[in-house]
Amino acid sequence: MAMTLRLTNAEDEALTALAAAEGVSKQEAAIRAILDRSARLAQDAEVRTAAREAIARYGPLLDRLAR
Predict the structure, then answer these.
(1) Among 18, 36, 50, 63, which is most buried by a count of CB atoms within 10 Å?
(2) What is the dihedral sign for C-alpha 15, 21, 23, 29?
(3) pTM of whole model > 0.85?
(4) Are 5 and 30 a contacting pair, CB within 8 Å?
């Protein structure tokens, strides 16, 4: 599927710099950035879930220890 990406001049300059730093095309740099951000969001969700589970499991114990 084709997609047109419209960027401001500043965004295009940032993408150009990113592509140059990674030694890839701007298209590849954009794809990598999208996939990296997606992976970080998924990891953040996993951490939040683990934290909620730990709080539910160990919260009462931590409360008692704090007294």
Answers:
(1) 18
(2) negative
(3) no
(4) yes
Question: What is the model's pLDDT at position 34?
Answer: 96
Contacts (Cβ under 8 Å, ≥6 apart) of 18: 29, 33
| Cβ-based burial of 29 (10 A; exposed 0-12, middle 13-18, buried ≥19) | buried
The terminus-to-terminus CA distance of the chain in angstroms comes to 59
Reply yes or no on whether the pLDDT at 47 is more than 90. Answer: yes
- Cβ of 66: how many Cβ atoms within 10 Å? 6
Q: Token digits for 47? A: 């951490």
Query: Cα separation of 45 and 39, whole Å?
Result: 10
